[in-house]
Design goal:
mainly alpha, 2 domains
Length: about 110
């Protein structure tokens, strides 16, 4: 999962079916997490980022490697370098998904 500061996070409004908020709250409390962290963990489990070994597109591999090299220097959260690494991760992921879809004939352009 991409590590983001609150300021850099995407926001998404969501309507939950009746009773789901209470179920999420209960599970979050038992796991010692906030409701937001519980939802993010569940989504990350259902929609994991691809493992670098699964990536076949050279452009996506390059971007992921570049992001990893930046993170290896432990940039401060919110710094220009950390933002660059997050941006490279997002670009790599988008490129990976588009190229995989194109190869599978899904027509994502």
């Amino acid at each position: 999962m991409i590590n983001e500061t609150h300021r850099d996070s995407d926001k998404f409004m969501l309507r939950l079916p009746t009773g789901m908020r209470d179920r999420i709250k209960s599970v979050a409390e038992s796991n010692g997490r906030s409701m937001n962290a519980e939802i993010v963990a569940a989504l990350d489990e259902k929609y994991p980022a691809p493992v670098a070994d699964e990536v076949t597109d050279p452009g996506a591999k390059f971007l992921w490697d570049l992001a990893a090299k930046i993170r290896a220097r432990n940039p401060k959260p919110g710094s220009l370098r950390a933002i660059q690494a997050d941006t490279y991760d997002r670009l790599a992921y988008d490129l990976h998904i588009r190229m995989r879809s194109k190869a599978e004939g899904d027509g994502v352009e």
